[in-house]
Write a structure and sequence with these properties.
It is built from 15 helices and four strands. It is mostly helical and 368 residues long. The longest helix has 23 residues.
Length: 368
């Protein structure tokens, strides 16, 4: 958010919200009280004429923050020029590496998730540069990605790190293997039924997905189908697809695989219920039922079972809130001394690093 706010201010100098965000961010390190003071001086009726980082704004700040404000202002002017002459990735590299926002994410554990977010942001910026997008278009596309229905197509950022958890869809996991795999929500319907216009069967031939006649729409009988053969083959295809996806999910694990789901007290099911399986848990019920110890009051398995059960207590929203508060209380943010120690240890190594200049893709467009 800090980097995007910086880009927004470069694009729209009168964006006071982005102005406030970067003042408070590690880019500025301006106190909240000083930010509030600067915002209070803005003429709300003439917001489009607002100019950030003026001398009058600097004079309002305490002496110890005036130099920080000036440095941030210089960085803003430099970045604003780059937005008109260079690609988006150039500015991202400047803010992340040269200015040093990356190191803020290394010593501050609360900001560590941004390390991986930057990889995705840089890739989006690279694609925008290749397509010749303006900064305005790029920022608008980022705003659209906030919607749950939007997703980035054909972009996979490999983040190979030891001791981390990778979250991905079953489709994305094809061809990959991991020592331990968790398949979550196995009792949920993970795939929508397929509704093609036609189906072909070796046994029944071609069947068509015809609409119901008005008379049949009023019938509540479940056996009143728009096409008996179509419904029969569709159910077979959906079950076959569910099994294929289930097989892919299971075979991603090298050593152990865990399924999570809701237990309703029994695993027995009829053959017809199994044929109508719509979840991974339903596919597992025959093997779960075979090894379940029905003599025990708690959910348990027989001694020769190839798997185990573990009952997990439900986690409420209140539990999550309390857990988050407890973690924040236990987490002690680094002091100024810790920052200095970190810099002293890293600086000798950093000075020996050979800096590889990124490939700059020149934009085919130029502003007047």
């Amino acid at each position: 958010n800090d980097i995007i706010s910086f880009l927004r201010l470069c694009n729209l100098p009168y964006d006071t919200l982005s102005f406030a965000n970067i003042l408070k961010s590690p880019f500025g390190n301006i106190s909240q009280s000083s930010v509030n003071l600067l915002l209070s001086q803005i003429d709300k009726g003439n917001i489009n004429n607002f100019i950030p980082f003026t001398q009058s704004q600097k004079d309002l700040l305490p002496l110890e923050e005036q130099s920080l404000f000036s440095q941030l202002g210089n960085l803003y002017e430099k970045s604003k020029i780059l937005t008109k002459t260079r690609g988006i990735t150039t500015i991202l590299n400047l803010l992340w590496y040269e200015v040093g926002y990356r190191y803020e994410t290394l010593w501050n554990s609360e900001l560590s998730p941004y390390q991986e977010l930057y990889d995705a942001l840089f890739e989006l910026g690279r694609i925008a540069d290749v397509e010749g997008q303006s900064l305005t278009k790029f920022l608008d596309s980022l705003e659209e990605l906030k919607e749950p229905s939007k997703k980035v197509e054909n972009m996979d950022i490999p983040l190979e790190r030891s001791g981390t958890v990778r979250l991905m869809s079953i489709h994305k996991s094809k061809g990959l293997e991991f020592p331990i795999v968790f398949i979550c929500g196995s009792g949920e319907r993970s795939m929508a039924p397929q509704n093609s216009l036609t189906y072909f069967s070796q046994e029944w031939g071609i069947t068509l997905n015809l609409p119901k006649l008005p008379f049949f729409k009023k019938q509540k009988d479940e056996y009143v189908k728009r096409n008996y053969f179509y419904e029969l083959i569709k159910a077979e295809e959906n079950l076959a697809e569910l099994r294929r996806v289930f097989y892919v999910a299971m075979t991603r694990a090298e050593n152990r695989v865990f399924f999570t789901g809701t237990y309703n007290g029994k695993f027995e099911q009829t053959e017809k219920e199994f044929e109508n399986s719509k979840t991974f848990l339903a596919l597992l019920k025959p093997i779960l039922s075979k090894y379940q110890d029905t003599t025990s009051e708690k959910i348990s398995v027989l001694p020769n079972s190839p798997f185990t059960f573990e009952e997990v207590a439900p986690l409420t929203l209140e539990n999550v809130k309390n857990l988050t508060i407890t973690q924040k209380k236990q987490q002690k943010l680094p002091s100024v001394e810790t920052k200095k120690e970190f810099i002293e240890k890293v600086e000798p190594l950093y000075n020996q690093i050979l800096i590889e200049e990124p490939v700059i893709i020149e934009s085919p467009y130029r502003t007047p």
